Structures are given as C-alpha cells and as structure tokens.
C-alpha cells in the first residue's frame, strides 16, 4: 500500500502563467502546491480567490515579473489575502524582478520607479527571492528593499550548459561592464573571452563595436548576457560577428524577454538561442528550480531570514455579521434617509 504524503506547512501558490515553474519548485522542495482563481469583472477589475487553506502556512507566491503591469495588482491582492486568511508568512519568488532600470532621475520630474516598486513589494511580503536582478547603480537589493532579499546567480548554470553543449567556445559579453561577469563564466568553462563596446542612444538605438576577433575564427562564438530585453544588442553583435568571418553565434542569456519581434530577428543570425526559465519562452533550456530549491534548503534552518509580521486581528461576531450581510440586507450608507 502506497504511503500517503503528509501535508507540508509550506504552500506554493502560482500566479497565472507561473504554474509550471511553481509545480517544479514544489516538487523540488516537497511543498504543497496550491491554486488561485482569478478573473476580471466587466470593467476590468481583478477578482482573486485563494482556493487552498493557508492558515498557519508559510505561503510562497511564485510570479515572474517580466511584464509586471499586466498582473501586479493580482500579486498584491494574493499576498494580502494570504496574510488576512491566516498565513504565518508570505514570501515572493520572482525569477525575474522588474523595475530595476529607472534607478535615478535622468530628467526633471521622472519617477524613480525602482524605489517605488521596492516599497510596494516590501509592504506586502516578508521576503523576496530572485535571480540575477539587473543591478546597476545599486550595490545590492538591500539598498531598495526593506525586507530580507536573496539574490541568486544563474551564471554557473549557463557556464555548465556551454561547457556541455559547445565545443571550443569563445565567450563574448555585451559591454565593458560585463567584463568581470563574462570572465568568471569563461574561467568556469575554460575558454577565452572578449567584450563588446556598446553605446546606447535610446531604448532601441544601440551602437556596437567589436574588437578584432580574427584570431578566434576557429572557435564557436557564444554571446552571453544577463538579460535580452529589446534584443537589439544581441542582433547587432551577431551581425558584426559574421562580418568578421566568425561562425553564427550561440546566444545564452539569463532572462529572455525578447520584446516585440526581436527573437524572430535574432533567430536567423544565430546557431542556437538559450535562456533560463525565469521568463517562459521557446528558448528556455536551463531550469532555475534546482538553484532556488537549494537556496531554500540551506536557508530553512535560519528563521531570521523572514520578517514575521503580526497576524491580523480576528474578526469578532459583530464585524462578521456585517461582512456576511452586506450588501444583501444592509443598505449602503449613501442610500439612507
């Protein structure tokens, strides 16, 4: 007779579109897998219902934030609902973390959205776990977020994929700032590396200069980057590599967003395009759930990682009666008299 699996005190709840990732993570961590019901009212407002018991559970919401404006309110509603329904703590696992690029006021009147976004997340969650956030002027997530954060790194996973799948690679980084990151991957792979010179004139206007790579024509170029957003840097780099007589490159990125038709433009210029599953995309080849599960297992013995907020006050009989009866029998205040 097969033994019945005991219920865990940990519950994973995926936001829409994150079910497959969350299911793999639940299996890795041996946690319970929960579910949400979401839909939209005719006026566009979001409806959300947690279908799983969260009382005294450590609830983890899984939501990649590659396109945050489409579902951010649902995420906040889910966190608040879990807490008000009795969850002991609420953690966010965001394989991709949004709103990191606007880290200063470049022109008068601009919103520093990275700080605003961090405040909103920090007010709703006890802890944040993410992979390779696009830190630029911030030294660490703790400079923005007031909750404990864990920044995990996928570069070793990309390096291991390259070592296993690419013969005689030449690692190429997108700009001078990537030098240290690319050199670390190259060292792990045991391959030479180079970096491009990038001049950005706008979100979609990037000028790329390649160093002379003619000495490496017998090697397979691999363009590596932490994020492919507009994809224009990779597209321009791939074109110029061919102009120098090198082979069509492989591309390996952590976060494959590929906005617009950038992926379709990049495909004919490359041999292969590979990304992690931080953002669901046809290029996904490298799974992040083992990385996250390992971090969770190591951190599990340290209860100080999460900020345990005071649980919500219980609803008394009078308040419960009002909740249950309105609006079926209690007239709204503006309709009296």
State the helicity in percent bands.
25-40%
Structural category is alpha/beta
- What is the arithmetic mean of pLDDT? 88
N→C terminal distance: 67 Å
Strand fraction equals 15-25%
Taking pLDDT < 50 over at least 5 consecutive residues as the criterion, the unreliable ranges are 304-313, 325-337
The strands making up the biggest β-sheet line up spatially as 2-1-5-6-7-8
Helix and strand run: EHEEEEHEHEEHEHEEEEHEHEEHH
Structure in words:
- The chain has a 6-stranded parallel beta sheet, sandwiched between helices. Strands 10-9-13-14-15-16 form a 6-stranded parallel beta sheet, sandwiched between helices. A two-stranded antiparallel sheet has the order 3-4.
- Helices cover 29% and strands 24% of the residues.
- It is α/β, with parallel strands linked by helices and 337 residues long.
- The protein has 9 helices and 16 strands.
- It is globular, with a radius of gyration of 23 Å.
- The chain has helices spanning 19-29, 68-84, 113-124, 155-165, 179-189, 232-243, 262-266, 289-299, 317-325, and strands at residues 10-14, 32-33, 36-40, 46-50, 58-62, 89-94, 127-131, 149-152, 169-173, 193-195, 197-202, 205-209, 220-228, 250-256, 272-276, 284-286.
- Mean pLDDT is 88; it is low at 304-313 and 325-337.
Give the helices and strands, then pairings:
Blueprint: E1 10-14, H1 19-29, E2 32-33, E3 36-40, E4 46-50, E5 58-62, H2 68-84, E6 89-94, H3 113-124, E7 127-131, E8 149-152, H4 155-165, E9 169-173, H5 179-189, E10 193-195, E11 197-202, E12 205-209, E13 220-228, H6 232-243, E14 250-256, H7 262-266, E15 272-276, E16 284-286, H8 289-299, H9 317-325
Helix pairs in contact: 1-8, 4-5
